[in-house]
Amino acid sequence: MTVPTTSRTEGSLHLSTSPPRLAVRPWLAAFCGLLSLGVNVARAEGAASEADGGSKLNSVTVEADRNHAALKRQVDEFVSAVAARPVDESLVRWGAPICPLVGGLPRDQAEFALARLSQIAASVGAPLAPAGRTCSPNFYIVATDKPDALIAGWRKRDARLFGSGSGPSIRRFVETTRPVRVWYNADLTTGDGMAMSNDVGAIAVGTVGASSGGNTQALAGIPTNLHAKPTLLQWNEVRQLTSAIVIIDKRQLRDINVGQLIDYIAMATLTEVHQDADLGGAGSILRLFADSDREGRPSGLTKYDEAYLRAMYHSDQRDKMQLSVIETQVTKDLLR
After folding, report:
1. Strand partners of residue 335
2. 180, 264 in Cβ contact below 8 A?
3. Which of 287, 283, 288, 289 is nearest to 308 (CA)?
4. Which of 165, 166, 187, 300 would be 263's cystine partner, CB 3.0–4.6 Å?
5. How far apart are CA 336 and CA 328, in angstroms?
6. pLDDT reading at 289 higher than 60
7. In the prediction, which pLDDT does 4 show?
């Protein structure tokens, strides 16, 4: 079969029916070889680029996992160190509305302290007495140059100052040389928020007093939970703060401003904490008096502090796993 081709001569166009030449010129074969090589090289570079990109992505993912794991360890250490929980009892937080009273500070500082404490309590979910209404003080903050004399005189006037506190605990509070001393008074309440019963008749009906014919008078005055449930997952009774006493030794405040001081008090009294806890690498206002370097002191509540207090008041106090729940919530909060 012949394929028509055209050929141009000067001044005219002729139609030719001769077969086309199929021979490939040497330079064209070389060009095609180079082109093919270029395509292969490009494909190889693309594959290498994808592999490298995948490696970088995996590296970023691994680094993020490591950072998350490191943060979780730090949070777990922080929460475990800060939280004060006796054996076989719940964590403690405020149940009654907080009604603060500030004494020993200039009026402007006292007003600032009240406003700041109310702001922090509201932001983390702690109960607060309604503004503008008269309430009975249960959160005392007193600044003085003579803390020992103040405590001694106060104790003489109020025999119930330290509630049901043990002798060793009271002595530690009285004899400490801390710049800020904190005393907690807490009561047991039922897990469903109802008061414990001291009624002898009710105890006789609901407890061993009736079934065994025991002496119900022996149970008089002993708080008893008439609503206990047979469960190992929750506390039948929880501890709730009813009052707190904060004594500030003004001689030891050094260069600490009132904002730092009140934030420290808020962290130390909205829940029971270990003031001398080893916090590891976590930042906290609880380091305020531990760091002699003025520049290194926290300026106020840190993200760790705020996250911890929020988790404390937004977790189920009855849950025996509350500490673990708080650790998880604090980690999530810090990752936002």
Report:
1. none
2. yes
3. 283
4. 300
5. 13
6. yes
7. 46
DSSP conformation class of 253: -
The pair of structure tokens assigned to 289 is 């008096």
186: tokens are 């807490």
Please, are residues 249 and 233 in contact by the beta-carbon 8 Å criterion? no
CA 251 to CA 254: how far, in whole Å?
7
Angle separating helix axes 303-313 and 107-124, nearest 10 degrees: 60
Tokens of 31: 């060009």
What one-character-per-residue DSSP string does 93-145 give?
Answer: EE-SPB-EEEESS-HHHHHHHHHHHHHHHHHHT--BPPTTS-----EEEEEES
Structure tokens at 216: 């119900």
Q: What residues pair up with 139 in beta bridges, in sequence order?
A: 100, 244
Burial category of 149 from C-beta neighbours within 10 Å (exposed 0-12, middle 13-18, buried 19 and up): exposed
**Measured distance CA(241)–CA(128) in Å, rounded:** 13
Token pair listed for 293: 């370097």
In this predicted structure, the answer to whether residue 279 has a pLDDT above a threshold of 90 is: no
Each residue's pLDDT tens digit, 192-244: 766 666 654 444 444 444 444 445 444 556 777 766 777 778 878 899 999 99
322 with 233: CB under 8 angstroms?
no
Instruction: Enumerate the β-bridge partners of residue 319.
Output: 234
Contact 265, 141 (CB under 8 A): yes
- Strands 5-9, 92-94: parallel, antiparallel or unpaired by DSSP? unpaired
Is 6:15 a contact under the CB 8 Å cutoff?
yes
Compute φ and ψ for 197, nearest 5 degrees.
-100, 140
β-sheet bridge partners, residue 13? 8
Q: Are 271 and 92 in contact (CB under 8 A)?
A: yes
152 alpha carbon, distance to own chain's centre: 36
Cα torsion 29, 31, 32, 38: sign: positive
Q: Give tens-digit pLDDT for 125-173.
A: 999 999 878 899 999 999 999 999 999 999 999 999 999 899 999 999 9
Domain range list for the chain: 72-191+237-335, 193-226
